[in-house]
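Troubleshooting entry. The earlier prediction with zinc ion gave an output that would not parse, so I re-checked the input for stray whitespace and re-submitted. Clean input:
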Amino acid sequence: MSGTIKWEVIKEKSEKYKAEFRGSTGGRDYKGSPIWDYHAYCKWDGCIELTQYSNGYGYGHECLGVGACGCEQQDFHICSLAEFLFELGVLLEEARHYYRDKPGAEYWGENKDG
Ligand SMILES: [Zn+2]
């Protein structure tokens, strides 16, 4: 599987008990700076707060707030990332099983995870 998000630690926001990362899918703003589509606040206890931005907005933009801003910010709280990834893998297998003989099978096929 090849990653399409480039993650970078935000050094000035990270310390002994927390790490913050920003992730970019490669988009650039009008000044040529990376658009950070994702922000992940990773706590020492394994919990993470993951934020996804859309429409060319990214971490650090001057947000006008839910409904007023075009960023369509979405937040996910995940208590154990490793466990959640495992559970998503189970979901992937269930969805593949469901679609194996239906329209969409080509999108859910065995080779679609890279
Ligand atoms: Zn916003």
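This one parsed fine. The helical segments are 81-99, 105-108.
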